[in-house]
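Q: What would this chain look like folded?
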Amino acid sequence: MSQQPDLFASKEPQTLIDEDGTAVLYPQWLSVARRASLFADLQSSLKWEQTHLQMYGKRVPIPRLNAWYGDPSSRYSYSGAYFTPRPWTPALQGLRDDLSTVVGTAFNSVLANLYRTGRDSVAWHSDNEPELGPEPTIASLSLGADRVFVFRHIKSRRQVRMTLQDGDLLVMAGQLQRYWQHQLPKVAGLGEARINLTYRRVLA
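A: My prediction, written as C-alpha cells:
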C-alpha cells in the first residue's frame, strides 16, 4: 500500500477494548483532503436503499440508508433482509485494498450506511451473523458528521463510549461480536450527514 502523506494521517492507534475481543481506534486515519472528496463521491454515487427488517412479525424500515458492495460470492443477510453485493466501485475497492493491508484481513465486502441526520441511528446489536464466522474482523470507517458510538458488554453491561469523528477508523476483532453489542444513538438537532463503511469478510 502506498500511504502518501496527502492521503493518510499518522496518529497513534488507541486500544479501547481488550477484554473478550478487541476494539482499536485509529484517529483521523484519512487525511482531511481525502475524506472530504471521498464523502462527496460516496454520497452521490452509491446506490443507497431503504432496507426493511422483519421485526415482531412486521416489516419495519431501518432509520438509515444502506448499500452493499463486494465480491460476487459475498451474499449476506440479517433480520430477514438479504443483500446481494453490487460490483466494487473504484473508491470502495481502493479503500478495501488499503484496509486489508493495514488490518491484515482480506476483506471481500463492505456495508455502507448513510445517516442523513441525527434522527438516523442503529440500535443495540452485534455483527455475529454466521456468514462472518466465529471471530470476524470488521474495519469501520467514519466519514462526515461526528457521532457518538457505544459498546456494551452483554454480561457485565459495562459500556465504552466514544465520539467517532470524520476520518476515524475503528477495527473490531476476536470475540468482540460474541461478547459485546454496539449502537449509534440518535442525536437531537443534528442536521449533518454521516457515512459509515464497515468492511467485512463473508465466508463462502
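Confidence is low (pLDDT under 50) at residues 1-7.
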